[in-house]
């Protein structure tokens, strides 16, 4: 079924490309056919399903020299959205106002004239009307391509979560909740949760947690606290439970979360772990009792999908931690190392989740981040020295 759908989308994309090539050929002819030397911009637009595409042709000294295409969601009437677009279009320094602007019907010409203080017309026939129609046709095609791309991406995403469910031997996980803990040097520990519904992030469902009960950098107890707080509240409020829970971590984090779910809350929800490799990249999907590695092709859509989940929850947790701590988030043992300024501290603490991870990184790993070799060696030497002195 998916193969047939992909073939259909391929043919549709080819047809759209052929249409664009045809339009390009027509535009080339129009360069030679423009009757006067007036500098003018020609607008055409198309809209569907809450999206608008505006195509602008730039004619200079009688020749069609360039075009601009803009795609965006709109919430008012189409005419109001188009007027708003024109009003903002010439605020950009790359868009100087021409002598004349041509717009399609129905457009309130007087408003545009007052707004831009240039000559504005709605051509009803002849070559100028043909150019307006050509701009609209081009906008139609760009909008079709947008929807075709959305459809292909949605098909791939749905297929990815269906395949993920099959790999885990569970029902398709249409609602996934993922957790990640963040602390730097054991201070101000926080956790974050992101939610993916039908394979897409639902940011209004995201949650942030300040850790209240755990002292020090204890990732397992932090996971226990957050899972307890999240699902105690879900049960109390009667909110929807996830089809799959994802924790950033390996067997220890998984066991801590499962213990709370099953033994404290009486919940039986599939839960998997995402482990990283020594380069801090998504490496393995872990699942089951006993925990085993789920074999996934690294080039598969389901692997890209879980990688996206891990990246998103890590980004959200780190962002919250930075906001919580402000400038003090970057006060650490790194401050005393020669060659490590604010920018390099931010680079290190963005890439690695904790100071401990930086300690465990090799000089080569740090160099790959863009840290000069002498500075990378200083970092490792200083951090190891601090370990010995503790």
Second-tier CATH architecture of the largest domain: 2-Layer Sandwich
Mean pLDDT across all residues, rounded? 82
CATH C-level name of the largest domain: Alpha Beta
SSE pattern, N- to C-terminal: HEEEHEHEHEEEEHEHEEEHHHHH
Rounded Rg: 28 Å
Structural class: alpha/beta
Total number of beta strands: 13
Point out poorly predicted stretches.
1-9, 326-330
Percent strand equals: 15-25%
Helix content: 40-55%
- Largest sheet geometry: 8 strands, mixed
CATH topology of the largest domain: Nucleotidyltransferase, domain 5
Termini gap: 61 Å
Describe what this molecule looks like in 3D.
The protein is α/β, with parallel strands linked by helices and 390 residues long. It has 3 domains: 2-147, Nucleotidyltransferase, domain 5 (2-Layer Sandwich), CATH 3.30.420; 175-327, UvrC, RNAse H endonuclease domain (Nucleotidyltransferase, domain 5, 2-Layer Sandwich), CATH 3.30.420; 332-389, Orthogonal Bundle (DNA polymerase, domain 1), CATH 1.10.150. Helix content is 49%, strand content 21%. It has 11 helices and 13 strands. Strands 6, 7, 8, 9, 10, 11, 12 and 13 form an 8-stranded mixed sheet that branches. A 5-stranded mixed sheet has the order 3-2-1-4-5, with helices on both faces. α1 (2-33) packs antiparallel against α4, α4 (126-168) crosses α7 (301-325) and α5 runs parallel beside α6 (251-264). The radius of gyration is 28 Å and the shape is elongated. Residues 1-9 and 326-330 have low confidence and may be disordered.
């Amino acid at each position: 079924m998916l193969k047939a759908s992909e073939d259909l989308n391929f043919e549709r994309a080819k047809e759209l490309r052929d249409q664009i090539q045809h339009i390009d050929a027509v535009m080339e002819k129009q360069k030679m056919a423009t009757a006067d030397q007036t500098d003018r911009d020609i607008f055409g637009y198309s809209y569907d399903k809450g999206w608008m595409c505006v195509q602008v042709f730039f004619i200079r000294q009688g020749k069609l020299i360039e075009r601009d295409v803009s795609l965006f969601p709109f919430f008012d009437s189409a005419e109001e959205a188009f007027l708003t677009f024109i009003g903002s279009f010439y605020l950009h320094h790359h868009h100087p106002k021409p002598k004349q602007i041509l717009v399609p019907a129905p457009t309130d010409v007087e408003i545009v004239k007052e707004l831009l203080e240039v000559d504005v017309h709605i051509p009803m026939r002849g070559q100028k009307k043909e150019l307006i129609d050509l701009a609209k046709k081009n906008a139609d095609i760009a909008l079709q391509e947008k929807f075709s791309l959305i459809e292909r991406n949605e098909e791939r995403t749905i297929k990815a979560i269906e395949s993920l469910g099959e790999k885990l031997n569970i029902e398709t996980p249409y609602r996934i909740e993922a957790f990640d803990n963040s602390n730097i040097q054991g201070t101000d520990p926080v956790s974050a949760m992101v939610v993916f519904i039908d394979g897409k992030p639902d940011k209004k469902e995201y949650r942030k947690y300040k850790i209240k009960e755990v002292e020090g950098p204890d990732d397992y107890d932090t996971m226990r606290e957050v899972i307890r707080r999240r699902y105690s509240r879900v049960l109390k409020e009667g909110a929807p439970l996830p089809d799959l829970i994802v924790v950033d971590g390996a067997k220890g984090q998984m066991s801590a979360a499962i213990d709370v779910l099953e033994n404290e809350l009486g919940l039986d929800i599939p839960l998997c772990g995402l482990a990283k490799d020594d380069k801090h990249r998504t490496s393995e999907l872990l699942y089951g009792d006993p925990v085993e590695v789920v074999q996934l092709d690294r080039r598969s859509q389901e692997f890209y999908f879980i990688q996206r989940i891990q990246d998103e929850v890590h980004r959200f947790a780190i962002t919250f931690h930075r906001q919580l701590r402000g400038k003090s988030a970057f006060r650490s043992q790194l401050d005393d190392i020669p060659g490590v300024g604010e920018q390099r501290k931010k680079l290190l603490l963005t890439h690695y989740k904790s100071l401990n991870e930086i300690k465990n990184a090799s000089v080569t790993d740090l160099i790959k981040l863009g840290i000069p070799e002498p500075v990378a060696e200083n970092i490792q030497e200083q951090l190891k020295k601090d370990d010995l002195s503790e």
